[in-house]
Queue: 2 jobs
Job 1
Amino acid sequence: MPKKISSFELRPGRKLGHGYVVQSLIGKGIEGEVYEIKEADTGIHRAAKIYFPHCDPRNQRSIRHARKLDALRRCPIVLLYHHSESLTIKGLRTTAMISELCPGEPLGRWIERHSGKRLRPYIALQVLYHLVLGLQPIHRAGEYHGDVHTDNIMIEPRGVGFSLKLVDFYDWGKPAKFKQNQDIRDTINVFYDCLGGRDHYAKLPPEAKYICAGLKHNLIQKRFPNLGKLRQHLEEFQWETVV
Ligand SMILES: Nc1ncnc2c1ncn2[C@@H]1O[C@H](COP(=O)(O)OP(=O)(O)O)[C@@H](O)[C@H]1O
Ligand SMILES: [Mg+2]
């Protein structure tokens, strides 16, 4: 097993792989780090997700992740994967997945910048709707995200709507149906987090509570057995509250 490390500590200006230069660290998790990088020849900025060698000793995670992103490359919400690079950092062999640099910021951070660190119900519904629209082609392709939460969604407000990108897909193997149901629950959890979570649940309008369903798995599954049903509900429900 490769040595355990908690950071690659790549400094801005350091060369990376064939023709990239590190700009800054933009994300960090248990399995690796994400850096903004620049292609030296073109000046194009991209993202490099570099796995800690002890988390991905035989490159299986990175390969499965890359294959999944490639299979879903026509879904607009999926971050665009470019290629992988084998690297040696601190004397350790590892893999970097090079992909587009998603615009915007993680949804969790965006929510925190709002007053009361939560979104108004109508805005939260808009975010939920865009997320459902984005996830639908993934589920239609028989796939799933596998780890939908506010830090794996990049958001950029655009005009009257939002541009969303999903990062950090998980490959738990097949069959997918069970994982698709989990995506739906996680999506509703994101909506709940947008609204301020447990502290504000009691005071939410009934339209929002109906969707959250108290976060009860069985009730969510019954109301929204697939994304199509959730989408239909969002497009057609009747307002009782004045927004
Ligand atoms: N392609 C990207 N463009 C911009 N930011 C990204 C990109 N990929 C990841 N990030 C940022 O880095 C963070 C960590 O990346 P992620 O793939 O979720 O790794 P982890 O498995 O550590 O959670 C994300 O929450 C996001 O803020
Ligand atoms: Mg993540």
Job 2
Amino acid sequence: MPELPEVENIVRKLGPVVSGKTIEDITVFRDKSFQGEADLVLGLPIESVSRRAKFIRFHFPGNQNILSHLKMTGQFIYVDNENRVGGGHPTADWVKELPSRHTRVQLSLSGNATLFFNDQRVFGWLRVLADPEVEALYGKYGPDINTPAASIEYLANKFARTSRPVKIALMDNSIICGVGNIYACDALNLAGISPLRPANSLSLSEIEKLLQSAKQVIDLGIKTGGATIDNYVNLDGFAGSYQNHLQVYGREGEKCYQCGGVIEKIKLGGRGTYYCPHCQV
Ligand SMILES: [Zn+2]
């Protein structure tokens, strides 16, 4: 599942190549994947591309947008005469001729360019929404982890209200956005905090340490292009390399970099959770 760093990298790659290009045609291969009135954006230029939480937003004049979420297996691939850029769930579609059998939506752009939305499992979507509709949706989410709004005071206030395990609270999008499973495991290890601790048992200095660690791993995730795990295709400019910087995620039975203890794997909230019982207390 693409996490915040992977989505941020898609936005950074698509922005420069699609901005200024006009939507000439929209072909929907799977109705479920495209919602709203295509007519509202046809013939309009994409002004810019932005991200909030894991939403990808294509901005158009007249307060129109195409908002998208990749969910489990979505990917965007942009192709023109010279470039092939994009990202998302790693599959052979990164390198195959497109459209493929996983292409759900095809946006034909000016300049002989095409933006493909591929999605094996069809949980992802594109939606035509006006600005107020986008803002209303965004309002349901907590601040992004890599923004100043994600402050110690803010997090302390939220954590004080829940006795759920801190890892689950940290991954709760209504509290804070962007800390997916991989990054939550790693941030808790760097902060020396057990994922099982009730969120409301953390001291202010522990929350500060955790917030700092979470921002640190997300920054590294963004810098390295995110984590590309289980990939069998490795295309330059598509795959990230955070998987080479993992602290504990996927390292069951190996030594903790912080203390040399042995990393264990447990299930927490249905998710594989890696931590070092020796130094994470
Ligand atoms: Zn340790």
